[in-house]
Amino acid sequence: MSTKTSWWQALGLKQRLKLIVYALLLVNFAHYIGNDVEQAQHTFHSGWRWYDWTSTFATTLDELGWFILLFLLELETYVLSDDAFTRGRVIAMNVIHFICYVAIGHAVFAFGEYLVDLAGAVHHLDTTLCAFANEGLSFTRNLAYWELDASNCVKLSKSSEFYVFSQGQVISDAVGMTVELELAWADLIEVVVWLFVLFFIEMRIRLQDRGISSSRLLSFATTTKGFLYGILWCLAGYWAYRGHWIFAWDEALWILGFMAIGMNLSDWQKEIAQATTPNGEVGRSN
Q: How many beta carbons lie within 10 A of that of residue 219, not counting itself?
């Protein structure tokens, strides 16, 4: 009888769960690319600049940045041993970190600018949607888009109040505008909260890298990170409430993915505590 085992069987339960979560996140990534492509089809016009392209695909760039950061954190907190952190590798990882932060920072700016764009939307009262049927606009509500024309204008909305935004390419009624503002705020809050989560993860890494397994600052970082995850779970509930189940599912997967990094840090923290000698010398093994 053969005693050979596959690499999957050789993994512990915790590592299998991490790989499943990471794989599912990659699948969801394709969905976000599709959403950005659809939005671009309805908002593109001949006057677009390079920044308009990057703003429209801000979610795709943001997700890509987070994927790379998650991969680097997995390397840093579980896969690589201390000996693997050569000067060249550390520099390369820092450069990649910086590029990812730029991509995520761009998303924060783009989401904030979109809120400004919505605040400056052109308000039309006492009119009908059909009055805009021949202006080449797209009607949107709750992230769904329709090319507006005379055949569908009555079906899309019977309101008498409308807003035109996205550089004059998109129109929505009062109900749709309320939802659009909520979704825009949710996007901005989400990316800012994730940045704080990353900040406290990095804080834990730096503290534990110095051999610290117990301190008020370390406890504060861990506790605050748990509170931030609570905010993100609430956002996942909001996505589900709006019917965007794939967004809620994706939010949950990202939380689980970064909780996996937290488990790596907790295991490392235990190693530090166990390896601490009476004279304060510590060691680490992965």
A: 10
